[in-house]
Structure formats: structure tokens, C-alpha cells
Amino acid sequence: MSKLLLEKFPVPELRHWSAEGLDPGREVVLYHFGPSACSQKVRLALHEKSVAWTERLINLVAEENLAPDYMRINPRGVVPTLVDGPNTVFDSRTIMLYIDRNFPGPTLVPDGLEDRQVFDEWMARQDEFPIRTLTYGNAPGPMGRVMRGKVAKRVGLIERLQHENPDLADAYAVKRADTEGWLEAQSNAQTVKDVNAQIERQLEALETRLAEARWIAGDEYSLVDAAWTVMLGRLAFVGLGGLLASPSRPRVTDYYARVRGRPSFAAQVTRYQRKPYVLGQVIRGKFRAR
Ligand SMILES: N[C@@H](CCC(=O)N[C@@H](CS)C(=O)NCC(=O)O)C(=O)O
Hints:
Layout: H1 2-8, E1 28-32, H2 37-48, E2 54-57, H3 68-73, E3 81-84, E4 87-90, H4 92-102, H5 113-127, H6 131-138, H7 141-164, H8 169-187, H9 189-210, H10 223-237, H11 250-260, H12 263-273, H13 275-287
The protein binds glutathione.
The site of glutathione has 12 residues, from helix 2 and helix 4.
């Protein structure tokens, strides 16, 4: 049965982006997962800078991020991780800034002091938002149930991996504590409700900001727009797309249409959030024997 389903929901071939002005032989490797918001942020940055990259897919539904080999690359056991020659870079915000600074292409961080301050503030607003609770607490239908069910079973898996890999005992202990908090948050209706109210407040603030500037940090598109693109795309993904079409927030609606109209959105967000693609990953994850 799983084989049949896998044939029905193939994972499309992934294209890699052509680079201009990169040293021949420089290989940029991104460990990522298609629908992961943090991975999307980094992919948008790579795309907007036209950086060539090679992918290593880490299927979060299959918990490949917990595999000892991956934990030895990224001890936090999360995606994304960027490897650029001798440099291994963690954390989506840090990776985005690293990409902007270390590759040719348009500058995606504003120069002026005022714009830079707004940039930092809105990067933090996005980065600190409990997007995991928003996603897992709201994900609709059977897909949502599979996602939440996987989290519930993770603690046992982590305990086993911790036992089998004493060199990673501390890293797995952190994962275990984090998973317990995650489980609690996604199952607590009040917590999910609070997070949903919190995103509405952020959208109100975004509406106000967009009355002052065309893009979040001024006249030019920047990395903070990429970060918020992912945030808004996530709302649509988890069935809260109505929040982006509210008549009380016309600027947010227009802004979402503009970021969605960029080629980077189709290539790095939509295509990794299409139902057949996501279902393919979920099914692979669900049936993969560990
Ligand atoms: N602050 C980190 C968070 C990374 C993160 O939580 N990644 C998620 C996907 S968006 C993940 O790998 N989740 C799996 C897990 O926590 O076990 C970043 O921005 O990169």
C-alpha cells in the first residue's frame, strides 16, 4: 500500500539555481525540508541572490533531523543548515544574513540607519513568533493529524537514540525537553488560540507599517520581506488564509499579492507546499522504518 501511495504522490525533481560570479568549485549545500518555514526563508534568500545550491533533503516527518549523522552536523537537530566550504551555518536568520554578506547579487539588507532599525525589529518579530505552535496547532485535515501524531511519538524515539548514541546524550536531552514543550503547546487549545490572536496583532502592526513604506524596511525589497513572506504563506498553508484577505487590512492583502508575485515565491514556497509534494513527504515519513 505504501508503495502505491508513493507512486501516486511522487516528489518532483528539484532544480538547482544557476549562480553568477561564484568561484567555480564552490559548493553551497543546504540541508532543508520543503514545507519547513525556516527552510523557506533561506531558500528565498538564496533565490533572490541567485546563489547556486545543492540540496540535502532532511524529511522532518521521517524525523531524519534526529538521525545521529545529522545531529553531528547540526546538534540542535533542526533544519536548515547551510554548508559553504569550511563554514557550517545554523539558524535561518543568521544564514540569511550570511548569504547576503557572502555572495554576489543585490544587497538585501538596508543601508540607512532608520531602515536598518525597522529591518532588525521586524526580523525579530518574525523570528520570535511561535510559528511551530501556529503550524501544528492549526494544520487541518489528515495531514494535520499525521503531523501532530508524529510529535506525540517522538519522545520514545529520542530516548532510544539517546541510549544508542552516548556521544550525543546532551543534544538528545535538549531535543526531548523541547519536544515535550512542543507537544504541550500543540495540544493546548488555549495556547493555540493565543498564538492565533498574536498573529492578528502582528498583521495589524504590518498594516500600519505598510502605510509608511512600500516594503517592510523601506523602498527596497529586503530579507525581512522574505521572512514575512514565509509567515504569510504559512497562514495560507494552515487554513488561516482568510486573515490575509481581511477588508480591514488592505495593505497586507496587497503586500501578500506582491511577495507572492515574485518568481522566488513560486519556486521556493508554492512548489514545496503543493499538496502532492507535501503528501509525498508525509507518506514517505510515515512509512519509513527507523
Ligand atoms: N531558530 C531556528 C529554528 C529552526 C527550527 O525550529 N526548524 C524547524 C523547521 S522550521 C525544525 O527543524 N523542526 C524540527 C524539530 O524541531 O525537531 C531557525 O530559524 O533556523
